Amino acid sequence: KQEVTQIPAALSVPEGENLVLNCSFTDSAIYNLQWFRQDPGKGLTSLLLIQSSQREQTSGRLNASLDKSSGRSTLYIAASQPGDSATYLCAVDNTDKLIFGTGTRLQVFP
Amino acid sequence: DAGITQSPRHKVTETGTPVTLRCHQTENHRYMYWYRQDPGHGLRLIHYSYGVKDTDKGEVSDGYSVSRSKTEDFLLTLESATSSQTSVYFCAISESSTEQFFGPGTRLTVL
Questions:
Q1: How far apart are CA B63 and CA B66, in angstroms?
Q2: Contact list, A45 vs chain B (CB under 8 Å)
Q3: Considering only alpha carbons, which residue of chain B is nearest residue A30?
Q4: What is the pLDDT of residues B68-102, one digit of tens each?
Q5: CB–CB contact B99 A91 (8 Å)
Q6: Chain A contact for B46, CB < 8 A?
Q7: To the nearest whole angstrom, how far is the Cα of A14 from the nearest Cα of chain B?
Q8: Given CB atoms, is B45 within the 8 Å cutoff of chain A?
Q9: In this complex, is the C-beta atom of B34 within 8 Å of any C-beta atom belonging to chain A?
Q10: Which one of A11, A67, B24, B29 has the fewest beta carbons within 10 angstroms of its own beta carbon?
């Protein structure tokens, strides 16, 4: 059974820092991995999708990497801003069904 | 944003009553999903659909049923709501093995 773990569970940093959020999964037979952002009381916003054949994806200040063999993905946030404060979720796709981690709650203070 | 709406957005109901949540999409995506989100458990898949009248169970399907009579609508029914079904429910859509896009959620409270 696929299990997805995100470390740390919570993170508080000053504005401007570069951050790394971690996601690990137990079964490397995945189709893709997706990173989401969730603001309090809101739905999920898709940030990045990495297909199983890819090593990384970039969007603006965000860069996500995927190492299937070790069962790991990282989300790198450059030059963090207070507006980046949210919960970040990773999810792996096994046969068109997403398995989610429990998220990293990020707070960026001015 | 992907065209996904959920209704109602908030609902309070009593134990034992039936409840139906609706997900509507305007993207003509093949796959639709229902998840629940609970503290300490993250998001868990309840049921999903891979086409009209084609549905399957997810991880936490007990106590829930679904129907999809049209491409754009996916209904989640709690036949007899229980307090353990108090949760936030999210609908999502996708084409096969691609990004999933989520609706705004429905907050359900069962008293």
A1: 11
A2: 102
A3: B97
A4: 999 999 999 999 999 999 999 999 999 876 789 99
A5: no
A6: no
A7: 26
A8: yes
A9: no
A10: A67
Q: A98 and B99 in contact by Cβ < 8 A?
A: no
Instruction: Name every chain B residue with its beta carbon within 8 A of the beta carbon of A102.
Output: 40-42
Choose, out of A5, A34, A98, A102, the residue to mutate when testing the contact with B (most B CBs < 10 Å).
Answer: A98
CA-to-CA distance for A91 and A10, rounded, in angstroms?
17
pLDDT digits (tens, 9 = 90+) for A41-86: 889 999 999 998 999 999 999 999 999 999 999 999 999 999 999 9
Q: Are B25 and B36 spatial neighbours (Cβ–Cβ below 8 Å)?
A: no
The CB-based long-range contact list for A7-11 (8 Å cut-off, 24+ gap) reads: A7/A104, A8/A104, A9/A102, A9/A103, A9/A104, A9/A105, A10/A104, A10/A105, A10/A106, A10/A107, A11/A104, A11/A105, A11/A106, A11/A107
Confidence at residue B103, expressed as pLDDT on a 0 to 100 scale: 95
Q: pLDDT of B7-49, one tens digit each? A: 999 999 999 999 999 999 999 999 999 999 998 888 999 999 9
Scanning the structure block, which residue is given the tokens 């999809």? B68
- Within an 8 Å CB–CB cutoff, is residue B75 touching chain A? no
Q: What is the pLDDT of residue A3?
A: 92
